[in-house]
Amino acid sequence: xxxxxxxxxxxxxxxxxxxxxxxxxxxxxxxxxxxxxxxxxxxxxxxxxxxxxxxxxxxxxxxxxxxxxxxxxxxxxxxxxxxxxxxxxxxxxxxxxxxxxxxxxxxxxxxxxxxxxxxxxxxxxxxxxxxxxxxxxxxxxxxxxxxxxxxxxxxxxxxxxxxxxxxxxxxxxxxxxxxxxxxxxxxxxxxxxxxxxxxxxxxxxxxxxxxxxxxxxxxxxxxxxxxxxxxxxxxxxxxxxxxxxxxxxxxxxxxxxxxxxxxxx
Amino acid sequence: xxxxxxxxxxxxxxxxxxxxxxxxxxxxxxxxxxxxxxxxxxxxxxxxxxxxxxxxxxxxxxxxxxxxxxxxxxxxxxxxxxxxxxxxxxxxxxxxxxxxxxxxxxxxxxxxxxxxxxxxxxxxxxxxxxxxxxxxxxxxxxxxxxxxxxxxxxxxxxxxxxxxxxxxxxxxxxxxxxxxxxxxxxxxxxxxxxxxxxxxxxxxxxxxxxxxxxxxxxxxxxxxxxxxxxxxxxxxxxxxxxxxxxxxxxxxxxxxxxxxxxxxxxxxxxxxxxxxxxxxxxxxxxxxxxxxxxxxxxxxxxxxxxxxxxxxxxxxxxxxxxxxxxxxxxxxxxxxxxxxxxxxxxxxxxxxxxxxxxxxxxxxxxxxxxxxxxxxxxxxxxxxxxxxxxxxxxxxxxxxxxxxxxxxxxxxxxxxxxxxxxxxxxxxxxxxxxxxxxxxxxxxxxxxxx
Lengths: 265, 450
Ligand SMILES: Nc1ncnc2c1ncn2[C@@H]1O[C@H](COP(=O)(O)OP(=O)(O)O)[C@@H](O)[C@H]1O
Ligand SMILES: [Mg+2]
Known about the structure:
The complex is a heterodimer of chains A (265) and B (450).
Chain A: E1 16-27, E2 30-41, E3 45-49, H1 56-62, E4 73-81, E5 84-85, H2 93-99, E6 100-103, H3 114-125, H4 131-144, H5 148-151, H6 164-177, E7 182-186, H7 194-207, E8 212-216, H8 220-226, E9 229-234, E10 237-243, H9 244-249, H10 254-260
Parallel strand pairs in A: 3-8, 3-9, 6-7, 7-8
Antiparallel strand pairs in A: 1-2, 1-4, 4-5, 9-10
Helix pairs in contact in A: 3-4, 3-6, 4-6, 6-7
Chain B: H1 23-61, E1 66-75, H2 78-81, H3 89-93, H4 97-115, H5 123-127, H6 134-144, E2 152-158, H7 161-168, H8 184-196, E3 199-203, H9 205-209, H10 224-255, H11 260-274, H12 277-291, H13 299-324, H14 327-335, H15 340-369, H16 372-376, H17 391-396, H18 402-411, H19 415-446
Antiparallel strand pairs in B: 1-2, 1-3
The structure holds adenosine-5'-diphosphate and magnesium ion (MG).
């Protein structure tokens, strides 16, 4: 067993931010997500773990309808954000994605200046009325992304010129800049070295103050370190969902236990 | 593990020295050297061909950039040009070019006499050293400057193409045995006049700027007007194929669903790129000229036909450029709440722009060099003798194009035109090489910025 250092973080009574009801996802004929029901809480870090190919990314991408961009992908069921079904025909995915930001596995800054990377979202959503306000948003986002001190002197430098860890924090800052309520992260540290990983994890813990964070990770230690809730996926099923400490020390399902003890994966 | 070789040589034993090459290694190294030698030989052969081509073209064509001129003092005899003496333009116009020929004959006779050159030639045969267009040149000048009548002025006339060819070495005393246009005494006189500085060969800007001339006056023919024809066609091609091609590519690459009909379109675009250009020519003839009643020989129609040809090139290269933009950039834009169109126009298109531009330039270069479709829409032949004076005229009035002009010259009997054809090829190649170089530079400079 891993030496898991989940201190008993007191999780106060939380409001549900997202709730998924009977979600099915199909890629053409293949059934990638089967009957998933889950409640994701506000101001909480929820980790999705599971063997690769089990559907973690697929389910995460349902939460901001990024799956819409894949032609063959069909989603069934309901996903409620603050009680509203985001798959309702009246909902425009573009508006949704401003509320539910996303950070990707590989850092993907725009090949533009650091400033423009952050300012892009606010610009297209009309969040700033003038240059001063935009400057303010950029600074605030970079500060929250814990990268302000490293880039404040070179905002005009290209975002692609930063190191991998800096790029990922830039991407997090970019996601924050549109004032989202939920932040989705798909293996945000898998392309990073341990030091950069530690910085991003620290940042995730801070983000919990303001956002509901959902993070996909293949590292169980990372899940244990950053999350309060953990969901274990296996072959498209949500096998177990609960307090992180609970899942790692005392899993209910034998499949969860096999996975965290390293027998499946 | 045993190393089982195909040709059954003994497997390498443990403890063998590395200081000696095994037979197997030697064979392998020899094969590699042989292959490299083949490669170098292939490249050398290619370079040799290129060198031969360039030497040939420049050797044959550079003569077109120089031209022989005859400088004479012509007395604009008032008694002949303006009998009434009132300098009335209408009266002056009544004198045709035939009326000017005697003035030139007198001028050259006087010159020859003044130089003390002995010759049995009649003044008429002396004047034959000049271009057949010389009287017309004189007349044009007089009509523009009626005040000059009565004065003696120095004029610079084009020499006849035979005289020009003689100075360039194309025409010899031997080669003119059966030539009715020039005789040995005329060449003797030419030698004398060259010595006296009356006849000289200089740079010929008229070849680059001027218009085509009739069969009788190869010395006056220039490629300038057909260059304008090409320019107007390229304007049409650019204005149509770039927006249409880019819009089609963006739709196919970024928006269209993967379905059977997009596959059909895809296959058809590839097929279109392989269609012989003459097919587009006959299509242009049928659709634009016969059906839509557009004028024959107009650069507008030429441009439309070449647009059809260029579109597949632009679409294919634009789609390749769009495909080369990593999907993560689209994800990033969509992830912050950009719409699909915003993602494409704000992020994908700027990154693809160099590739699109490169494809466009290459497509234009292809279109610029295309001749076959122009044959069918009447852009080949002796067409324009004056450059167009406005955009509308440039698009609608009959004109030729550079490659069509070259073809036309190469087709004419007089070897003097042959030289022009080579000269035209030099100019065309300068354009094509410039455009392709630009495309390469663009591609190099903007390669993968992410
Ligand atoms: N774009 C796609 N098209 C078709 N099948 C896909 C696509 N993306 C994922 N899948 C399939 O869906 C299943 C879940 O994939 P994914 O969500 O990426 O797993 P994870 O993120 O847990 O590794 C896999 O079997 C995968 O092959
Ligand atoms: Mg994944």
